[in-house]
Each structure stands twice: as C-alpha cells, then as structure tokens.
Amino acid sequence: MALQSLDIKQRSATTTPAPSVRKTVEVAKLIDVSTCIGCKACQAACMEWNDIRDEVGRNYGVYDNPMDLTDKSWTVMRYAEVEEKGRLEWLIRKDGCMHCLEPGCLKACPAPGAIVQYANGIVDFHEEHCIGCGYCITGCPFNIPRISKEDGKAYKCSLCSDRVAVGQAPACAKACPTGAIQFGTKEDMQDYAAKRIGDLKERGFDKAGLYDPAGVGGTHVMYVLHHADRPQLYSGLPADPGISPLVSLWKGFAKPLASLALGAVALGSLFHYVMKGPNEVSKETEKEVEKEGSQ
Amino acid sequence: MIRDPKDLQRYTPQERANHWVVGISFILLALSGLAFFHPAFYPLSQLFGGGTWARILHPYIGVFMAFFFVLMFLRFRKLNVMTKTDKEWLSRIGEMVDGDDHNMPEQGKYNGGQKAMFWASVVCMLLLLVSGALIWRAQFSPPIGLVRFAAVVHAVAAVAMIALIVIHAYAAIWVKGTIRAMWYGTVTRAWARQHHRAWYREMTGK
User: Fold this and answer.
1) Which residues of chain B does A152 touch, with a Cβ-Cβ cutoff of 8 Å?
2) For residue A93, what are the CA distances in angstroms to A76, A152, A228?
3) Residue A94: phi, psi to the nearest 5?
4) What domains appear along chain A, each with residue ranges and CATH number?
5) In terms of Cα–Cα distance, which of A234, A216, A197, A184 is closest to A30?
6) Helix axis angle, B13-37 relative to B51-76, nearest 10°?
C-alpha cells in the first residue's frame, strides 16, 4: 500500500534518508476500554475494509474468537474477567498493532522498505518487499506480526493507512457503536483521553490513566485504562514495553563495527602479503630434501 | 594424478571432497547470511534469486553444511589434539606472522594455529547450528526471549566464523605449496620438511 510516498519517516534496512518532504501531523487511535462493550464490530469492519477473510475456526467456549491475532485477523478483542474489590470486572481490550514511535519490527527488519513509518506515525508493512524471515516478530515488544502460512509474508494492522491517507478514520473507529475507538491527531486524542480519565476518576477509578508507553517512545494506538497502574490485567498488556536490549544489541552499532572488522581482516591479509611477501619453501630446505632423498 | 612419486599424500580424495562440500556451503551461507546482517550487504541476496529465496535457502544450506562438518570433525578431531609444542608454537605466533618461521617449534601434521582454527570453527559451527535452528521461523517458534538471544548469538558466531575462514583461506594462499594439498591431495617433501617437520619425519622416516 504505497499511497503515501513522500512522507516516510523511517524505512527498514535503509541507511539513507527516505522520501520525507511532505510533513503530516501525528495521528493516533484512542481505544477507551471503559466504554467498549466487546461487540467485535471493529473486528468485522477490519476484515471488511481490508477485504481479508480468516478461516472460520472453533469456538473454545469463550468470547475470544479468533483466539489470537493471525495473518488475516489484524485485530482481536481479548476478554479478561478480573475480580477487583470483590466485584467482577470484564476488561475487554481490542488488541492489535500499537504503531510505536520507535518500532521494534522496523528496527529488526533486514529487507529494505518492507516496513516503513510515515510522518503521521503509522507503521506499515509493505508485503511485496517482505522476505518472510520473521525478524519483525523478534523485534516487536507487543507480539503483533504474524507470518502467513500461505505466502510466507508478515501481516499486521495498517491503522488503515490507505484510509488515513485520504482523510478517513480507520475502519474500526468508523464502525465502533459506542465511540470507544476514537481517531484524530495524537494531541487531540491525548486531550480527549484526559477528559475520559477525569470522568473515570470521579466514578471511583482513581488509577485510571492513558496507556502511551514511553519505553517505545509512545504509541499511535493508545488505551484509556481504568487500572492504568496494572496494564497486565488487560490480557497481558505489557506494563513497561520497550525494544529488548538484545534486539538493540543485535541491530545496533555492533553490526557496522563488525562489518568494518571483517573488511579489516580481509584487507589486513592482503597487506600482510604485500608487505611480508609469501611464505615459500626455502632453497636450503629444497637442497636438504634432495640430499636426504639421495642417501 | 601423481605429479612426483616423491610427493607426500596429505589428504585422501574423500577428505578433499568433504572439505569442499563444507567450503562451498560456507561461502553460500556467508553470502546469503550477510545479506540479512546489514543493509550494506543486502544486494548479495540477488545472487540467490532475491531476499525471499535467500531467506528460504539459507537454513537448508546450513543444515547441509552442519551434516558434512560433523563428518569432517570426525575425520580430523584426533589430529587436532593440542599438545605442549602447539602451545609453545602459538605463544610465538608473532614470529610466524612476521614471516620468519625457521625457528618455530617442530610441528606435526597440523601446527598450533591450525588446531586453534579447528576448535574455534567447531565452537562457532555448534553455536551457529543451535542458534540458527532457534531463529528459523519457517520451522520453529520457540519462546521470544530465546529467539532474541539466539539472533545475537547467530550474528556474533557468524562474524567470528567469517573472520576465521578469511584467515584460514589467507594462510593457505600465503604459505606457498599449500593449496594443492586441498586440490589434489599431495605436497612436496620440501614443503612438509619446512612447515611440518615432525609430520615429514613420520611420513618419510628421515
């Protein structure tokens, strides 16, 4: 989906600047967990707009269906039953790509241009450049990308980059019947979240807050949580996500240095030959061997 | 082909074939692996028909090489046991690199440097095989922490292995009369006497 080509902020496995003359405002999707009723209209809208039908799977006796994200289900509702202060709380979280400001997938990807981040913050996979190595999964702090068993390419939520590019809200936000999914500039979404959090606090959720984790530079999909102090309650939303230090080590400054070191070994060998000369069998040894042979 | 009946047999045809199967696999693995290592090397994936083909082929070539490397390990492991003389040789490797090897301790079929290379390769190959399996997404999906760790191990071991092989190949180019041992299996008596005196005596009784 290469509709936006002049506002690319970051491009995977690319060491020179990407086309970035067009500046756009940062956008965000705000998911207000406290007003979500778990109807799955967002799941239906996602498959409809993107025109991808997952296989009809099994029902496991719970509301979660499908049970996990797949290459064809880019968003899923996760239902957690939690007991808080003697009351049952049904915490329903719409899971999918968080569109990190510092995307671990993009950092890990070895294929030039297979993952891009637009100036508006959306992190998009360009499957035609994807080689199917799965490094994006290794890099992602949220366990989002999925490799298709059919074509070997990685897929995930695009935040409807094609819709956003023409001024439309993502399909899930458009379909949500309660307004639990809002879409706009990141700033507007933060303001809107502040109002919602104020309301929740008045109603006794004194730990209500915005999930916009700093460990990944903030995200372009944010949650309003009643229990922002314990995001793990929401089907394992990580409390402090960040790109793993191992991924940073693997994809960081060590690689250019190692590449230079390999070049140095090769060139060092060449210059050793040039400066020291070949190690040849000496004439004396040849003579000694002849002498020994004639004995 | 017998070039000179006095030449000494250093490698059997089976040993040579085994070496080249591993060597060719290694070159293919290094080229395809570097393509994923850093964007600067990504164009190397074109040699394999593009990034996707390089990604598909790399692990299979890896398994193939691992199998033949095990065979090679079994063939040569006894000849590569480190001795006291080898350690002395290694401690004076500076003289060797400087080009003056006449006073180096007498060496058997392999010198200390070759043995160190052998064992370093064994360690790297083992790390590459295990970590490579862990990051082979098309086949396995181990816990994510393990995959991340394996990705680092694979990259580090690969760099070490490539550096080792560059040195290995250069040493063969530098020491004249060596490469023919891997082409047709023999070396001259003078070569053996100069570089592997103890082996020379063992082979000739002189």
Assistant:
1) 52, 56, 138
2) 8, 28, 13
3) -85, 110
4) 8-249 (3.30.70.20), 255-294 (no CATH)
5) A184
6) 140
Q: Which residues of chain B from 56 to 85 reach within 8 Å of chain A, CB to CB? A: 56
Assess contact for B26 and B64: CB atoms under 8 A. no
Q: Tokens 């002849």 belong to which residue?
A: A290
| Residue of chain A minimizing CA distance to B158 | A258
Q: How many whole angstroms separate alpha carbon B150 and alpha carbon B127?
A: 9
Cα–Cα distances (Å) from A137 to A105, A238, B151, in that order, read 7, 16, 12
Give the nearest chain A residue to B143 (CA atoms): A138
Chain A environment of B97 (Cβ under 8 Å) = 272, 276
| A249–B152 C-beta distance less than 8 A | yes
Q: How far apart are the first and last CA of chain A?
A: 82
**How many angstroms from the chain centroid is the CA of residue A133?**
15
Q: Is B98's Cβ below 8 Å from some Cβ in A?
A: yes
- Within 10 Å of residue A293's Cβ, how many Cβ atoms? 11
CB-CB under 8 Å, A259 with B204: no
**Residue B198 tokens, joined:** 């103890």
The answer to whether A136 and A146 are in contact (CB under 8 A) is no
Query: Do B40 and A259 lie within an 8 Å CB cutoff?
Result: yes
The pTM for the full model equals 0.94
Output the tens digit of pLDDT for each of chain B's 206 residues: 567 888 999 999 999 999 999 999 999 999 999 999 999 999 999 999 999 999 999 999 999 999 999 999 999 999 999 999 999 999 999 999 988 888 899 999 999 999 999 999 999 999 999 999 999 999 999 999 999 999 999 999 999 999 999 999 999 999 999 999 999 999 999 999 999 999 999 999 87
Domain boundaries, chain B: 12-76
